[in-house]
Write a structure and sequence with these properties.
This protein is of the alpha/beta class. The chain is built from nine helices and five strands, in the order ααααβαβαβαβαβα.
Length: 214
């Protein structure tokens, strides 16, 4: 099977949430000696972007997004083990990402973290229910370029504001871009709290991150 056919099949497998086909593609890529990065970026990654668009347009439900994300992740995990060391380019930048304190929802955050890695960022995922001090500590530890903070509930989005304030108090606000997102978050809220950007879905998050390090 040609590389082009594998790319098309990879995209469709993610859109369909078809794990068996995704793993078949991944194994074919390995067996045929094709650069895994090409299939990850042009195939599985593009498939997840399509899923994000379908979800944004209310054509896909949350369970369908989860199936697709899990399908993509398993294929990428397999392919990552076979990426030639010389094929790994210098990272675009370093991102610290997490769901804010009090919020245990991390599906969207997980998808964004995976896609940022696919597009060449070094990602430090702090998980969910993350205290502000953990964001600060990790940002300083890895000299992050970007912090991505997610909040899915109106009761927890205030933590994004507190994170901005904590970055100022730590004296590193000017050194890092703060990107916020999540179901409860809006562009107006991002501007109100002083964040650098707002991403309502995964494609926008990747675009913003690339813009910040360009």
């Amino acid at each position: 099977m040609s590389k082009e056919d594998l790319i098309i099949k990879a995209i469709k497998s993610v859109v369909d949430g078809d794990e068996n086909t995704a793993m078949e593609v991944a194994n074919s890529v390995i067996a045929e000696g094709i650069n895994p990065l090409e299939i990850i970026n042009e195939g599985f990654g593009q498939g997840m972007i399509k899923v994000g668009d379908l979800f944004a347009n209310e054509e896909y439900s949350l369970p369908e997004v989860l199936f697709s994300a899990d399908t993509m992740q398993k294929a990428i995990d397999l392919l990552t083990e076979h990426i030639p060391r010389e094929a790994v380019k210098e990272t675009l930048g370093t991102v610290v990402i997490g769901t804010v304190l009090g919020d245990i929802h991390d599906i969207g955050k997980n998808i964004v973290a995976t896609m940022l890695e696919v597009y060449g960022f070094t990602v430090h995922d702090l998980g969910r229910d993350v205290p502000i001090e953990n964001f600060i500590k990790k940002t300083q530890e890895v000299n992050a370029d970007i912090i991505a903070a997610s909040a899915l509930m109106t009761t927890t989005m205030v933590s994004q504001k507190h994170l901005h304030e904590a970055l100022q108090e730590a004296g590193i606000r000017e050194k890092v871009k703060l990107m916020v997102g999540g179901a409860a978050v809006t562009q107006e809220w991002a501007e109100q709290i002083g964040a650098d950007g707002y991403a309502e879905e995964v494609t926008k998050a990747v675009e913003l991150a690339k813009e910040y390090v360009s």
